[in-house]
Amino acid sequence: MATQARRNFIKKISCAGVGTLIPGLGSSGYNFSWSQKNDKRVGIVGMDTSHSPYLVRGINTSNSGYRVTAAYTSVSNDLPASHSRVGQFSKQIKSMGVEITDSLGELLNKVDYVLLCTVDGRLHKEQAEIILKAGKRVFIDKPMAISLVEVIEIFEFAQKLNIPIFSSSAVRFMKTAQEVRDGAIGNVTGAQVYAPIIYEPTHPSMYWYGIHGAELLYTVMGNGCEKVKCFTSEKHHFIIGDWGHGRIGTYNGLKNGMQKYGGQVFGDKGVSYLGDFENLSPLTDKILEFFETGEVPVDPSETIELFAFLDAAQKSEKTGTWVSLKEVWGQ
Questions:
Q1: Are residues 145 and 62 part of one domain?
Q2: Other CB atoms within 10 Å distance of the CB of residue 330
Q3: Domains in the chain, number
Q4: Residue-wise DSSP of 263-288
Q5: Which of 46, 48, 106, 313 has the fewest CB atoms within 10 Å, i.e. is most exposed?
């Protein structure tokens, strides 16, 4: 899969910027009038996901100096999650005083920063490249793309234009997971995480919802997974990751419809219980930090390896064997 140039890109790509969390956004007393005349304008692309109205509400009720002012959406008629929900979410966003534009180009002429929230990951690469060509800093909602190759190509394109981007699931910014990452239990020796798993025929099996559990696992374990093995049953999609040096991380994808995220993490100074995922507020805060500073809260190399991890899991599911990430890279 990887040419030498791409291998070199993967090795060198690294951006700083894991900052402290800003206090969460409130959920009452909404005020959708302009807070300042010089508010920085944010555009949202994609009104076919519940994330979109949440992000609009969070940003437009904050005192951040940022405001979502324009929105544009595409609709994927072969994806029920898109065409069945776009009407209700569009109405919600419009009711918050956001202008609905007729094209992506029109939106880009009206804003300074972009939230790419189109629910269909198949469209992300094309839409991201148009946004980047316009010189806009952009956050890409999950899944970043529908293949490891496309994920890498988006990062390569952004680096070529010298425009920072990042993509992440909101579960990455659970308070307990961030505390573990910041050293609360010392060096992490292993982890067991769980998250819901839902499949969408238009996307690779692990990309649609599996991204959440993988993000949580990588938040606490970090880069460096060497090989993966996957087991499936009627009720579970279970992945084992071997990080080497005795470090093992597991992800249990729950097939029973339970919307629960959590797990436990083992360190050389204690054990952390991750608790429940609450809402998108910490992600909203990180996006606003990113717009303000240009510093990405998730290193691109970690996002790229995370998708390689998912690809290895998908391959292992078919073969029943351990699959090394080097094999996925094509090395």
A1: yes
A2: 11
A3: 2
A4: EEEEETTEEEE------SHHHHHHHH
A5: 106
